[in-house]
């Protein structure tokens, strides 16, 4: 007992590097360096890490053989703590992504759900508001993201709203495009995750670069969107999607490095919900930009015997202003007449187009909705609309 007390009495204190002060002159070889605020802060972080490592060493020395080490949540540098932290994040993230994929599948393959989304299109605005509130709450409030069950409640709200938004941008496209977008997103995510884990390039040391690129990207996207409101330039749409994918890839790279540890900026092991929300949002937004890059003009319909339910026409931004919706509508009318079929016009655009052209030859092929059969007055389409016919690969008629 006395020997242990003597050992503790003469045990050296925590190792510390010499403190630095702003304006101090330091000789590095033949050069003299002036200490800045950043260098002072860096030295303080280094001394703090040394102190935590020393404290952990002292704790382990004082630990009895029968003490349970699994309950200890010490320094994040501890490999056991970090592995447990990473395992929790990716388990929750997997559940989130599977849930989101299931929601997308429901709205794609369940006819009633798809019609609900098409008819109640304004629901995406409510989902966007819920997502914004949930994400800001998790990011700003430490209590909301750390204290159960509130942290998981907010994470659930964020997952529900983000899943609906992902389904909303997916439901208007064909299944083949969605599957390709999912595959591309998976490959990009895995590639970035591996590179961020094993690469020596530490993006957490360059937060200023990330902030500058993010600000420039957001401003560029808004400017391009404003330009697209007044004129159509096909390449601008592609530029938006590419900028978005690069920006989201950089944020995903940054977030993965903060989770894996060993970098200048690390997340605390208590920030499981915050880290999961960051990675989840990065992946889902990346999927949406990939989908935007691959999207094509589509007419979705459902065949019930000889009646074709024309549900919705979707034209991506890069094809707007070229008359694709009008071309798809005319193609559908021609297809019905040639094949002696009937149409139920659920699509609002097709309703307006049918009432505008007032073609008697089409009347016998239209079986609904009822207000279309009654023939209310409507404003005619602009006869001066001029459009170029796209390549056949740029559009298709898709049967759901």
TrEMBL record:
Where does the record place the N-acetyltransferase domain?
A: 296-354
Organism lineage string: Eukaryota, Metazoa, Ecdysozoa, Arthropoda, Hexapoda
Pfam families under this entry? Acetyltransf_CG, Bax1-I
Q: How does it sit in the membrane?
A: Multi-pass membrane protein
* Keyword list, A-Z: Membrane, Transmembrane, Transmembrane helix
Gene designation = LOC100745775
TM region positions: 89-109, 121-140, 152-172, 178-198, 210-230, 236-254, 284-303, 323-345
Q: Which domain of life, per UniProt?
A: Eukaryota
Family from the record: Belongs to the NATD1 family.
**Name by which UniProt lists this protein:** Protein NATD1
Source organism per entry reads: Bombus impatiens (Bumblebee)
GO annotation, cellular component aspect = membrane
**Which stretches does the entry tag as region Disordered?**
1-23
Indicate where this protein resides in the cell: Membrane
């Amino acid at each position: 007992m006395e020997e242990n007390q003597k050992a503790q009495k003469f045990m050296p204190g925590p190792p510390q590097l010499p403190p630095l002060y702003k304006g101090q002159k330091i000789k590095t070889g033949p050069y003299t360096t002036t200490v800045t605020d950043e260098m002072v802060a860096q030295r303080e972080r280094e001394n703090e890490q040394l102190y935590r490592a020393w404290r952990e060493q002292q704790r382990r020395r004082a630990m009895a053989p029968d003490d349970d080490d699994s309950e200890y949540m010490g320094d994040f540098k501890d490999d056991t703590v970090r592995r447990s932290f990473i395992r929790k994040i990716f388990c929750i993230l997997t559940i989130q992504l599977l849930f989101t994929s299931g929601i997308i599948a429901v709205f794609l393959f369940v006819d009633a759900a798809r019609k609900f989304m098409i008819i109640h299109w304004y629901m995406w605005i409510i989902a966007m508001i819920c997502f914004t509130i949930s994400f800001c709450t998790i990011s700003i409030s430490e209590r909301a993201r750390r204290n159960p069950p509130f942290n998981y409640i907010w994470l659930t709200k964020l997952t529900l709203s983000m899943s609906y938004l992902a389904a909303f941008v997916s439901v208007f496209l064909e299944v083949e495009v969605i599957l390709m977008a999912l595959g591309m997103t998976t490959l990009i995510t895995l590639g970035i995750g591996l590179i961020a884990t094993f690469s020596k390039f530490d993006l957490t040391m360059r937060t200023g670069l990330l902030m500058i690129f993010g600000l420039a990207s957001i401003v560029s996207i808004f400017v391009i969107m404003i330009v697209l409101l007044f004129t159509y330039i096909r390449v601008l749409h592609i530029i938006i999607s590419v900028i978005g994918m690069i920006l989201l890839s950089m944020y995903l790279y940054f977030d993965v490095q903060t989770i894996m540890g060993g970098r200048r900026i690390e997340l605390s092991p208590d920030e499981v919900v915050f880290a999961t929300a960051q990675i989840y949002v990065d992946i889902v937004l990346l999927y949406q930009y990939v989908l935007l890059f691959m999207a094509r003009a589509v007419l979705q319909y459902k065949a019930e015997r000889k009646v074709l339910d024309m549900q919705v026409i979707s034209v991506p931004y890069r094809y707007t202003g070229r008359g694709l919706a009008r071309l798809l509508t005319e193609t559908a009318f021609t297809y019905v007449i040639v094949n002696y079929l009937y149409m139920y016009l659920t699509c609002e655009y097709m309703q307006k187009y049918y009432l505008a052209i007032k073609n008697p030859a089409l009347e016998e092929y239209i079986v609904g909705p009822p207000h279309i059969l009654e023939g209310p007055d409507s404003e005619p389409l602009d006869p001066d609309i001029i459009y170029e016919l796209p390549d056949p690969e740029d559009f298709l008629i898709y049967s759901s």
